[in-house]
Design brief:
The complex is a heterodimer. Chain A has 20 helices and 30 strands. The longest helix of chain A is centred in the middle third of the chain and has 19 residues, at 250-268. Chain A folds into five domains: 2-69, Phenylalanyl-tRNA Synthetase, Chain B, domain 1, CATH 3.30.56; 88-279, 3-Layer(bba) Sandwich (Phenylalanyl-tRNA Synthetase, Chain B, domain 3), CATH 3.50.40.10; 290-357, Phenylalanyl-tRNA Synthetase, Chain B, domain 1, CATH 3.30.56; 374-569, BirA Bifunctional Protein, domain 2; 586-674, Alpha-Beta Plaits, CATH 3.30.70.380. Chain A is α+β, with helices and mostly antiparallel strands. In chain A, a hairpin with a 4-residue loop joins β10 (186-189) and β11. By secondary structure, chain B is of the alpha+beta class. In chain B, strands 1-5-6-10-9-8-7 form a seven-stranded mixed sheet, with helices on both faces. The chains are: A alpha+beta, B alpha+beta.
Chain lengths: 675, 337
């Protein structure tokens, strides 16, 4: 909302400099965002919050200035005009238009608007057109009611019909644009054609020109939601539309209609030939008395206020106020729908005094009723901290993804769609983070950053819920310190190692990996991740075809995606201390040739642990090798068996026998070859 | 047999002075401490001495032995160091650094802000991003015909709301629905801080994104006042933006708070923005309608609420000009913070 300070002076002598006024208005909730000197005038651009349509005009702002400065407002006197009833107005769209006042004035002379008032409008950026058109703007910027003037002789049939447009109906609006309409648009029509898009813009061909002799002045009430939707749909807005969208006070329609009639007669001559006020439905609005006590103020603001001062402020704002002992009974003015409860009244007083002038205190902060297991609540943060400690850089990714990007990953499952996406790149809720994170991989690689360790703690979204998920990317060199210049590239075990270590530090138990089959991961180099026998995710090497689809070239990229809820549930919250065994352990290494697919390390480990007589503490994996010494289709495993007993030292013989037994069992069960 | 201790001592000193290499020093060691050295001779001579002499000479011999050992080893160290200095390491070579990772700047900012409120006694809670119209709008006193409910301002999903036939789930357009969820779950007194992602159909440019982060705060108790709101947020701003931060509470409008305000600040930490008021958060006293939505008896509780945009704060604080920087995730950016 633009405010001309010269114009404002017509209604109030506030006695403030522009700087002071700007500050006071801002601190009363009418933020002056921009100040501009235009000739001898100063113009404020003020942000009006949506609850204050009453401030979208100069008189409304004068009222605010009056409350701030405790000075009187001079409102212009307005004549009343008789409703003769003989203007042909039919409101067909009764739900969209609750009131339509048409005033027919004859014998006018269209000419330039008086210079003084014209300057006010020019300061607001409005080009002078003619006395009639400028007056519709003048009264709108003075009172807040949008108005329109038709050249009555151009209205076919001398008729006004308020109706929805027919599909395909066309109108050329005042901005010379040809608009094609449909049933969603409310129009003002004459007997044959639309002559205005209701509340937004008039038609070019029925507008007032220099030769106009008879005008029909429109002052109406339109449904604010409809005006807003139409404005957005047609991509057009106007000062009129801006006000209708926010709501125009019911009573303003009549008073503004009278005000413009006054001014037309004054500046353009003519006589009122006819006038009709069609009231379709008057809104039921209760203006109940709101009682506010000194105690209410103390409770809400945390301080006491001088009740006399409160009364004065409220009256300046247009309220009817009755005082009792320590109470104020307030009836809000007709233009203030936002004052309904006592909190609203106290806010009015508070903001006019200025929040910065109210005291402050430190609250007593208590959250005793929110009992949360901090260890679990902090889980996601801990996951993230551990990933960072493992050398990974956290990324933040969009939750929305395009269909084509998702298809590149080969994802086939269910997906949540947006009803109103802004573009095809953001039409789905991502059911996997892969597409988003591969975009990041690609752009980094394009910048030459090919050694990537990335992670995200975010969500994936599936019908039925959103799930916290850890996503990991590893690509390029495994180590980045200069001594490991061998440039070993990342492998599956590196990714798995990170997952295992992070889970171990989170004290997640019962983690298991089985060969996996996911569309986007390479078969044979991928695993499903289980926690407590529940599938929590997958990990492995991304298929080169998927990488190619994201234009990632000459790179091996490993990816893991693990749901965090199952992990969180598997956390051992209070770990028990395990007594340290003081007796020495005995270690026996074993070298095996394992035929691919015939045995897994985990199966062998489980078998040995089961048969380890409680003395086998663990099996360490020492080396994985292949090459000339190993038969084609087999891999060499070097394992280290660690034996230890509680309360005694194991003898060599005992260990050797047990180790021999276990070796035999492995050979028999899995057909592995001892080397 | 008598022992001229002083003579031996001065001989030793002389010999050491002359021993300028490790080899020469070794010769000195052998002369005095070796198997056929001077001290061995002395000890051997003791066999024929009287008890008195044994005591006297033994003591002197031990004294000499200790002295010789100390001096020789000290000289050895000196000579060793001199010899080695030629092939000493270059301590300015970079350490073999094992790189730690980095937390994304957005999440660093979230954590920093939450930390301040946690220290003040607030508890972190999180709400869902997929929300119902009830929680995102109705419960927050946002009327059915409010523009923010339009599909221009809120993303709607193809999922029907299981609790409201014919209405669809949406992506929360602010973190405020978390207020209602927390109030329904717990009974006051409560003090929670709710960080998370929010969504609005804004075209992406340097200062807009359809996804960004907010932090919501809520304090509900029997007697919470606007003065408390001012005090709390002043404490936060001083802690987070510096003791010399300038603040102002500017009246504003939110449907779910009454009175409502925006907080503007001026802080030295915002480079190039000195003397400018920057809007940093929205706040107010919880609207009675919101308590009603949570099922609280009328007038029983009062509360304060506030919310802030994380991207905006991070951009101001670190001088980042383009909001897209955050989601591009260029590792050069990630590693900088």
């Amino acid at each position: 909302m633009k405010l001309s300070l010269n114009w404002l002076r017509e209604y109030i002598d506030h006695g403030l400099t522009p700087d002071e006024l700007s500050f006071r208005l801002t601190m009363a909730g009418l933020e002056v965002e921009h100040v501009e000197k235009i000739g001898s005038d100063t113009v404020f651009e003020i942000e009006i919050t949506p609850n204050r349509p009453d401030c979208l005009n100069t008189l409304g702002l004068a009222r605010e200035v009056s409350a701030i400065t405790d000075k009187d407002v001079r409102s212009p006197g307005i004549n009343e005009y008789e409703d003769t009833g003989d203007v042909d107005i039919a409101v067909e769209a009764k739900a969209d238009c609750s009131r339509y006042i048409g005033t027919l004035i004859e014998g006018i002379s269209v000419k330039p608007f008086p210079a003084e008032k014209s300057l006010f409008l020019q300061a607001l950026g409005l080009n002078p057109i003619s006395n009639i058109v400028d007056l519709t703007n003048f009264v709108m910027f003075e009172q807040g009611q949008p108005l329109h003037a038709f050249d009555y002789d151009k209205l076919e049939g001398g008729k006004i019909i308020v109706r929805r447009a027919k599909k395909g109906e066309k109108i050329i609006t005042l901005d010379d644009a040809l608009r094609t309409l449909d049933e969603s648009v409310l129009v003002i029509a004459d007997a044959v054609k639309p002559v205005a898009i209701a509340g937004i813009m008039g038609g070019r061909d029925t507008g007032v020109t220099l030769s106009t002799k008879r005008i029909l002045l429109e002052a109406a009430q339109f449904d604010l939601g409809l005006i807003r939707r139409t404005s957005r749909k047609l991509g057009m807005t106007s000062d009129s539309c801006y006000r209708f969208e926010r709501g125009v006070a019911w009573r303003l329609t009549e008073s503004s209609s009278n005000r413009i009639t006054d001014l037309v007669l004054q500046t353009a001559g003519g006589v009122v030939k006819a006038r009709r006020d069609v009231v379709v439905s008057e809104p039921k609005r209760q203006r109940a008395e709101i009682t506010v006590t000194a105690g209410d103020i103390q409770k809400l603001l945390g301080c006491t206020l001088d009740m006399g001062r409160c009364e004065k402020i409220l009256k300046r704002l247009g309220c009817v106020v009755a005082t009792g002992s320590g109470t104020l009974s307030v009836i809000s003015p007709y233009f203030r729908n936002d004052i309904q409860i006592k909190e609203d009244v106290i806010e009015e007083v508070g903001r006019v005094i200025g929040y910065d002038n109210l005291p402050m205190s430190l609250p007593h902060v208590s959250a005793v009723n929110i009992v949360v297991d901090q260890e679990k609540e902090k889980f996601y943060e801990r996951v993230s901290d551990l990933m960072i400690a493992s050398g990974f850089n956290e990324v933040v990714l969009y939750s929305l993804v395009g269909k084509s990007a998702l298809e590149k990953t080969g994802y086939q499952g269910p997906v949540i769609k947006l009803q109103n996406p802004m573009s095809a790149e953001q039409e789905l809720m991502r059911p996997t983070s892969l597409a988003s994170i591969l975009g990041v991989v690609a752009s980094n690689m394009n910048h030459g950053q090919r050694d990537l360790k990335l992670f995200e703690v975010g969500k994936k979204y599936l019908p039925g819920g959103e799930k916290w998920t850890l996503s990991i990317i590893m690509a390029g060199r495994r180590d980045d310190d200069w001594r490991h210049s061998k440039k070993e590239t990342v492998e599956f075990v590196d990714l798995k190692g990170v997952v295992e270590e992070v889970c171990a530090k989170l004290r997640v138990r019962w983690l298991a990996f089985t060969p996996g089959a996911v569309s986007f991961l390479e078969e044979g180099v991928s695993a499903d991740v289980f926690v407590n026998d529940q599938k929590a995710g997958c990990m492995g090497k991304i298929r080169s075809s998927v990488l190619a689809a994201f234009e990632i070239k000459k790179a091996l990229v490993y990816f893991a995606e693990i749901e965090l809820e199952p992990l969180k549930d598997a956390v051992v919250v209070r770990e028990r201390f395990q007594e340290l065994n003081e007796f020495p352990s005995a270690v026996r290494d074993i070298s095996l040739a394992v035929k691919n697919g015939s045995a897994s390390f985990e199966a062998m480990r489980a078998l040995c642990m089961e048969n380890g007589s409680g003395l086998l503490q663990r099996i360490d994996f020492v080396e994985l090798y292949s090459g000339e010494k190993i038969a084609e289709g087999s891999r060499g495993y070097v394992l280290s068996f660690v034996y230890q007993a509680k309360g005694r030292t194991l003898t060599d013989g005992e260990v050797n026998t047990l180790h021999e037994n276990l070796t035999q069992k492995l050979v028999e069960t899995f057909a592995v070859v001892r080397r | 047999m008598a022992l001229d201790i002083e003579k031996i001592k001065s001989d030793l000193t002389e010999d050491l002075k002359a021993a300028l290499s490790l080899e020469a020093l070794e010769a000195v060691r052998i002369k005095y401490l070796g198997k056929k050295g001077m001290l061995q001779d002395i000890y051997a001579g003791l066999a024929t001495a009287s008890i008195e002499e044994k005591k006297l000479i033994g003591k002197s011999a031990n004294e000499i032995k200790l002295l010789a050992e100390t001096l020789i080893s000290a000289q050895k160290e000196t000579l060793g160091a001199q010899q080695k200095s030629g092939d000493a390491i270059d301590v300015t070579i970079p350490g073999a650094r094992y790189s730690l990772g980095t937390k994304h700047l957005i999440n660093q900012t979230v954590e920093e802000i939450c930390d301040v409120f946690e220290c003040l006694g607030f508890v972190i809670q999180r709400g869902p991003e997929i929300e119902s119209e009830f929680h995102n709008f109705s419960a927050l006193n946002i009327p059915l015909d409010h523009p923010s409910r339009d599909s221009f301002d809120t993303f709607y999903l193809d999922q029907e709301d299981p609790d409201a036939k014919g209405r669809y789930l949406l992506l929360r357009s602010h973190t405020s629905p978390g207020q209602v969820r927390v109030m329904k779950q717990f009974k006051p007194p409560m003090a929670v801080i709710i960080p998370g992602k929010v969504y609005r159909p804004d075209a992406v440019d340097a200062s807009h994104s359809f996804m960004f982060h907010q932090i919501e705060g809520l304090l509900v108790d029997k007697q919470v006042s606007f003065a408390d709101l001012k005090g709390l947020l002043t404490a936060f701003c001083k802690q987070y933006f510096g003791e010399d931060v300038k603040m102002r509470f500017r009246p504003h409008f939110f449907p779910f708070t009454e009175p409502s305000a925006e907080v503007d600040i001026q802080s030295n930490i915002f480079k190039g923005r000195a003397g400018k008021w920057l809007e940093i958060l929205g706040c107010g006293m919880v609207h009675p309608k919101v308590f009603e939505s949570a099922g609280y008896p009328r007038g029983e509780y009062s509360g304060l609420a506030f919310g802030m945009g994380v991207e905006r704060i991070a951009m101001l604080k670190h001088g980042i000009g383009d909001i897209r920087t955050f989601v591009e995730n260029d590792t050069r950016f990630l590693k900088q913070f």
